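A note from the maintainers: we've had questions about how concatenated examples are separated. There is no special marker in the raw files; a new sequence line simply starts the next protein. For clarity in this README we add a label.
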Amino acid sequence: MPDPTKINVLFVCNRNQWRSATGEQMWSNHANLWVRSAGTSPSAMPTVYKGGILWADVIFVMEEKH
């Protein structure tokens, strides 16, 4: 059962290789957060999808274009 006191945070960049993946790693041990990362490019692993967006309480994008 999900912890309702934690905030779901999604980090997004192009390919989820550096920026968003680093954000996820840096915040993964924070006691009040659940974190994930994704990319906007079709070659990203994983890519941003509707379920991930609906899951997130907060979405951090790494560039204005995102």
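[label: protein 2]
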Amino acid sequence: MAKDLFNRYLWLVDTIYRAGTITLDEINRKWLRCEMSNGEKIPNRTFHNHRKAIEELFDINIECDRHNGGNYYIENTEELKKEGLRKWMLNIFAVNTVLNESRKLRDLSFASKV
């Protein structure tokens, strides 16, 4: 369970970091395409709990620009650009995500040929 939760945190940070700014609706669209979602959106309360946990665990602040359509962004991106454990973890997660997506595409391609 803790591993799944940790992976969810990393997925959320990676998604927001890559987007620069992103709405909760856009996050949920991406989340629904992710295997971890089990076809369910991230509830609003869960999203905000994840934001708090990410700040506590990784010292990464996910903020909301309410004046610009409710876009979420990472406040301290300069910290993520520095070499360190957090960057390493995010890179490992990003590679793992790409590999999992590739595996799913391969499996879908193989299944359609059968």
